[in-house]
């Protein structure tokens, strides 16, 4: 499996500001995803980060609120824009396409965001 | 609408016992069923996965049982240890390529020494 790192690991932000989360993989991967996990809850897919094109967003998530970049096959960013306390969550990136079993997704350690 | 339903929400097991977590799904297009283990403050880690062409898969103390007709699958942890205390998520996805994983709601397992 790939080694995935995320920065920052945690942050406390003020309402109305934006935070950009970085996801770095130690090898080229086909797919990169961004998930949200609210405290004590399950994981919900925000979007699929497509290399060289616009991200594909899931229902309930929009590009203006969660702009995503993927400039190459090892790196992606997620920005949480105009934050409100409801955005307080753990944000996780995951990757796939690193193994023989192409469905396998591997997750980064997550970014714990608190919005005051 | 929860695509994958998971139970129980929490589970307490004595050391050495068997932990059983159940999941059910409706979408017959699902063809990949992984289980993830998550410790506090960490990202989910892939534990074991199964495809619907087999009824059981075992890796060490962890076994997935799959019932295609009932659209159910379960995780069995044999000889449960305190180090197994974590939150477990089942998930499901479709297609040959990596696709959206639909996660269950999670089971918090506590193994008592």
Q: Which descriptors apply to this entry?
A:
heterodimer; A: 116 residues; Immunoglobulin-like; seven-stranded mixed β-sheet; 50% strand; B: 113 residues; mainly beta; six-stranded mixed β-sheet; five-stranded antiparallel β-sheet; 11 strands; globular
Walk me through the structure.
The complex is a heterodimer of chains A (116) and B (113). With 116 residues, chain A is mainly β. Chain A has one domain (6-99): Sandwich (Immunoglobulin-like). Chain A is 0% helix and 50% strand. Chain A contains no helices and eleven strands. Chain A has strands spanning 4-7, 10-13, 19-25, 31-37, 43-49, 56-57, 68-72, 75-80, 89-96, 105-107, 111-115. In chain A, the strands form two sheets. In chain A, strands 2, 4, 5, 6, 9, 10 and 11 form a seven-stranded mixed sheet that branches. A four-stranded antiparallel sheet of chain A has the order 1-3-8-7, with no helix packed on it. The radius of gyration of chain A is 13 Å and the shape is globular. The model of chain A has no long low-confidence stretch (mean pLDDT 92). Chain B is mostly beta strands and 113 residues long. Chain B has a single domain (4-95), classed as Sandwich (Immunoglobulin-like). Helices cover 0% and strands 57% of the residues of chain B. Chain B has strands at 4-7, 10-14, 19-25, 30-38, 45-50, 56-59, 62-67, 72-77, 86-94, 102-103, 107-112. In chain B, the strands form two sheets. In chain B, strands 2, 4, 5, 9, 10 and 11 form a six-stranded mixed sheet that branches. A five-stranded antiparallel sheet of chain B has the order 1-3-8-7-6, with no helix packed on it. Chain B is globular and about 40 Å long. Chains A and B meet through β5, β9 and β10 of A and β4 and β5 of B.
């Amino acid at each position: 499996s790939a080694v995935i790192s995320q920065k920052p690991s945690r942050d406390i932000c003020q309402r109305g500001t934006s935070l950009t989360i970085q996801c770095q993989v130690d090898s080229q991967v086909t797919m990169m995803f961004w998930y949200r996990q609210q405290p004590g809850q399950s994981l919900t897919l925000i979007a699929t980060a497509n290399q060289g094109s616009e991200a594909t967003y899931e229902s309930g998530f929009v590009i203006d609120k969660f702009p995503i970049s993927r400039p190459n096959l090892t790196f992606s960013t997620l920005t949480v824009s105009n934050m409100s306390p409801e955005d307080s969550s753990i944000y996780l990136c995951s990757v796939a396409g690193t193994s023989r079993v192409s469905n396998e997704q591997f997750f980064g350690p997550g970014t714990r965001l608190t919005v005051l | 609408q929860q695509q994958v339903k998971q139970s129980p929400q929490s589970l307490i097991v004595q050391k050495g016992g068997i932990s059983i977590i159940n999941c059910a799904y409706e979408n017959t297009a699902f063809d990949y069923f992984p289980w993830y283990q998550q410790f506090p403050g960490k990202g989910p880690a892939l534990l074991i996965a199964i495809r619907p062409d087999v009824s059981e898969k075992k890796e060490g103390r962890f076994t997935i049982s799959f019932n295609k007709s009932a659209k159910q699958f379960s995780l069995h942890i044999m000889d449960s240890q305190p180090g197994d205390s974590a939150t477990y998520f089942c998930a499901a996805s479709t297609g040959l390529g990596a696709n959206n994983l639909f996660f269950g709601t999670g089971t918090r397992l506590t193994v008592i020494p």
